[in-house]
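Suppose you are handed only these lines of text.
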Amino acid sequence: MSALTLSNVTKSFGKTEVIAGVDLNVEPGEFCVFVGPSGCGKSTLLRMIAGLEDVTSGDVTIGGNRVNDVAPAKREIAMVFQSYALYPHLTVRDNMGLALKQAGASKAEISGATEKASGMLGLQPLLERRPAELSGGQRQRVAIGRAIVRRPKLFLFDEPLSNLDAALRVATRIEIARLHRELGATMIYVTHDQVEAMTLADKIVVLRAGRVEQVGRPMDLYNDPANTFVAGFIGSPQ
Ligand code: ADP
Ligand code: MG
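From them, the structure of the protein bound to adenosine-5'-diphosphate can be written out as follows.
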């Protein structure tokens, strides 16, 4: 069974259709990158996968269940945003443990999972700090750690590196690739950056104006782009 299936998914805001019939299968453990220019609908698609936004028509199915049929607390999904979205009044430890606490986990479970995730990301020295006492790169590592703590089957990343400087972008990208190998989870990763797409993806989905232009492995898109748009975005120079 696919980890994620989109069947003829559309989304309109008022009369404006921003997602115009998207079909997609993502396999368990796959690293799938959505790439496309600003405004093409990447975040909207991701938010529908997360169940944060209703589809106008079509179905989003995760592990065989329609996302909106599963209670939010039971959806094994974690999302990492460009803006980190940490709680300013909570320490790193409490930010990371909050979702488990809300799900009713015991103190021992929460501290075990928090220690493990912070070990994977080198966050132990920061556990008692608050977000205001962290750099941008550290905040994003906490946001990623918070996602890992819940041990989701599906990770959704929405341009997680765009607020970081160039050196941190590379370091964090490498860290995300390592986490994908270690966790074996399915990951959907949105970016408008070709290099991120080419280096991280098992499968790239090229979006343009709410439609899928092409889906394929990075080198297949690079060597054999379906059209000039895909070529301009990731293809080899013609
Ligand atoms: P991307 O993430 O690829 O930059 P978005 O998914 O954010 O694109 O947006 C796709 C289109 O949908 C844009 O034209 C945007 O203005 C529009 N849009 C997104 N969210 C809303 C909303 N809540 N209300 C109206 N229009 C929206
Ligand atoms: Mg976006």
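What can we learn from it? The longest helix spans residues 166-183. The beta strands are 4-13, 16-26, 31-35, 57-62, 65-66, 77-80, 154-158, 186-191, 203-208, 211-216.
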